[in-house]
Specification:
The protein is of the alpha/beta class. It folds into 3 domains: 14-332, Alpha-Beta Barrel (TIM Barrel); 380-472 and 636-679, Rossmann fold, CATH 3.40.50; 485-635, FAD/NAD(P)-binding domain (3-Layer(bba) Sandwich). Helices cover 30% and strands 17% of the residues. The strands form 7 sheets. An 8-stranded parallel β-barrel has the order 3-4-5-8-9-10-11-12, surrounded by 7 helices. It is globular and about 75 Å long. The two termini are 41 Å apart.
Length: 680
């Protein structure tokens, strides 16, 4: 007997005429770093094969350059000669063996390229890259067009099921289509028709080259999020051009990389931009794909059910769980390891030139290196501490067959994740805890909460894993015992009611999180939830009616004012927040600045008394007349139990924050716990 699917729209096949996709899930393009080196293509093949086996309907590679000038880096991940075809065949063969389909994204970096050979429609340097591009001549434009055609031909030869032509996010084609970068007066610039002529030529010629039985996705920038972006009428005109020029599918692009509006980070509401795709869908007769912050089967199902799109694109959620679709089809969505949009191991790695991975799934992009194989020698293991490191170790080790007992003195699992999930904009961290709860039951971990373990209690176990986490770092300062002084833990656990004026000592990740928390009214803290679309659009200045050019021109952002007057302070010189994540740090800094939070560097802390916090900056003394001073000065490892175990002859391993007290570094903790569990 078969049961009715909980996600009938998401799991419905999509007939493209010459081929049928098994469901409505597209694994969107995401650069992993494995594309950049020939030696890593076997790893790339394994990465995509695992997701094909996980039943993704269609996948798109990370950006592949069609030529040297279009490459993002000096040593490109490209396909522009036949010598590169065999390495790509490794990928397509592995995907097809797993009954999947895959398209290659052709991405020309334009002025976003990190090398001195970059080219663009006009010689206007990007604010996020170090090189000024060369303005292309008419002949140069033709050469770049031909590079797309050549890449399409080679993709066909390499066995890809199609290509995605990248026309959004501020890359080469998108630069031509807007007046923001295109200042040309020849046939490639000026009027709307002239500006998108290059996209039309590329699509027509690529279709002619590939034939009719080949998927061509055109990724159209439907919302530039720049004042000089395209109007909605111009976007629609381009969409109709893409359809008439041979595009099989129309994918949604949102924002340029230089736009100062968040589009995919965790503080963005789920499905925040599907309304744009919904406006486009009736304008064309080819399937349209929507994207951005779609991370659960139910969110995808709802989007498709209400007719916002024909397909949903997810990239990071397929990093987090390669079996996302399979688990949904089997009616077990609770087993999905959900992407929490933290960007810490994926996009932050990519933009630093590191291989991509995933905070909640350290196997991502390491499928040939990190595997959880059945244990040959079954051991009894005690794990002390149910934070991210302990949870990762316990679930992997038990999944391999070990007998695992997990102890924590708290009444709930999660450790520092229970702090993170209380921060407005980070509510989805709770998804990871839901996942771990399910995994603990599934792999039969003996969970014992409200239990404080001693060295004597651990005798008799084959392996002892200490994941005891961290303590808040204490600081030595005159007046530190004043009643105004509180710990960030007490603040986040709502054990103290913070007054209207507050100073935070420490402006690292913890300080910024606490500042965000305190900038919201107390009534919102009682049960935090993501902003609504309307609230988000108002805060960042997005026109939901699409009357404004680029979705933002002339729209005044209306960020809410902080519920308190907050001073965010650090000893180090420079602006606070430089150590935050590369792709999300600017959002946190800008959000707090817009709310009126004071952020000061080069601060010397003098003393605390009933008047407030006494500081000096460059020798100038100041008094901050605050009601409370919150200590956010980092953490130290909790090694009390480890010290008492020394000399007892037990096989003991220290992981996570207990080993390295970095600021709430769940990425490190989960990876280390998983790796150790895979070895023992």
């Amino acid at each position: 007997m078969t049961t009715k699917s909980r996600f009938p729209h998401m799991l419905a096949p999509l007939d493209l005429g010459f081929t049928t996709l098994k469901n409505r899930v597209l694994m969107g393009s995401m650069h992993t770093g494995l594309e950049d080196h020939k030696k890593d293509f076997p790893k790339l093949a394994a990465y995509f094969a695992e997701r094909a086996a996980g039943e993704v309907g269609l996948m798109v590679t990370g950006g592949i350059a069609p030529g040297l000038r279009g490459s993002l880096m000096p040593f490109p991940s490209g396909l522009f000669n036949r010598l590169q075809v065999p390495r790509h065949k490794l990928v397509t063969s592995a995907v097809h063996e797993a009954d999947g389909k895959i398209c290659m994204q052709i991405l020309h970096g334009g002025r976003y390229s990190y090398h001195p050979l970059s080219v663009a429609p006009s010689a206007i340097q990007s604010p996020i890259t170090p090189f000024k591009p060369k303005a292309l001549s008419s002949r140069g434009v033709e050469k770049e067009i031909q590079s797309f055609v050549r890449a399409t031909r080679l993709a066909l030869e390499a066995g890809y099921d199609g290509v995605e032509i990248m026309g959004s996010e501020g890359y080469f084609i998108n630069e031509f289509t807007t007046t923001h970068v295109n200042k040309r007066t020849d046939k490639w610039g000026g009027s709307t028709r002239n500006r998108y002529r290059i996209a039309e030529e590329i699509l027509n010629r690529c279709r002619e080259e590939a034939g009719k039985d080949f998927i061509i996705i055109y990724r159209l920038s439907m919302l530039d999020l720049l004042p000089e972006g395209n109007s909605w009428d111009e976007v629609v005109e381009q969409a109709k051009m893409a359809e008439s020029s041979g595009a099989t599918l129309l994918n949604t692009g949102i924002g340029w990389h230089e736009a100062r509006i968040p589009t995919i980070a965790t503080m963005v509401p789920r499905g925040a931009f599907t309304w744009v795709t919904a406006r486009m869908r009736p304008e064309v007769n080819i399937p349209v794909i929507t994207t951005n912050r779609i991370n659960t089967p139910q969110v995808a199902e709802d989007i498709l059910a209400r007719g916002d799109a024909d397909m949903v694109s997810m990239a990071r959620p397929l990093l987090a769980d390669a079996e996302f679709v399979k688990k949904a089809r089997r009616g077990r969505p609770e087993e999905i390891n959900i992407c929490i949009a933290c960007n810490q191991a994926c996009l932050d790695h990519t933009f630093k030139g590191k291989t991509c991975s995933c905070l909640v799934n350290p196997r991502a992009c390491r499928e040939t290196e990190l595997n959880y194989l059945p244990a040959k020698d079954i051991k009894a293991m005690a794990v002390v501490g149910a934070g991210p490191a302990g949870l990762a170790f316990a679930t992997v080790a038990a999944g391999r067959g070990h007998r695992v007992s997990l102890f924590d003195q708290s009444d709930e699992i999660g450790g520092q994740f229970n702090m993170a999930k209380k921060i407005p904009g980070k509510e989805e961290f709770s998804f990871s805890l839901d996942y771990f709860r399910d995994e603990l039951d599934r792999v039969e971990v003996d969970l014992q909460l409200n239990t404080r373990m001693s060295a004597e209690d651990l005798a008799g176990y084959d392996e002892v894993i200490l994941a005891t986490g961290v303590h808040p770092r204490q600081i030595d300062l005159p007046g530190i015992d004043n009643s105004k002084v509180v710990s960030y833990i007490d603040v986040l656990n709502r054990k103290v009611r913070i007054g209207p004026r507050v100073a935070l000592i420490g402006a690292g990740g913890i300080g910024f999180d606490v500042a965000e928390f305190l900038s919201h009214p107390d009534e919102e803290q009682a049960e935090t939830s993501p902003d609504t679309l309307e609230e988000f659009a108002a805060e960042w200045g997005i026109d939901l009616t699409l009357q404004a050019r680029g979705g933002v021109e002339g729209v005044k952002a209306q960020p809410p004012k902080s519920a308190r007057e907050i001073w965010l302070l650090q000893r180090k010189a420079g602006k606070p927040g430089k150590t935050l994540g590369k792709t999300t740090g600017w959002i946190h800094r800008l959000s707090l600045r817009n709310r009126g939070v004071h952020m000061l560097g080069s601060v010397t802390y003098e003393s605390i008394d009933d008047q407030g916090l006494h500081i000096s900056i460059n020798g100038e003394k100041q008094l901050l007349e605050v009601d409370h001073v919150v200590i956010c000065a980092g953490q130290v490892s909790n090694l009390d139990l480890f010290k008492s175990l020394e000399g007892r002859g037990l096989s003991t391993h220290v992981i996570g924050g207990a080993k390295k007290a970095a600021e709430l570094d769940a990425k490190y903790a989960i990876r280390e716990g998983s790796e150790l569990a895979a070895r023992l």
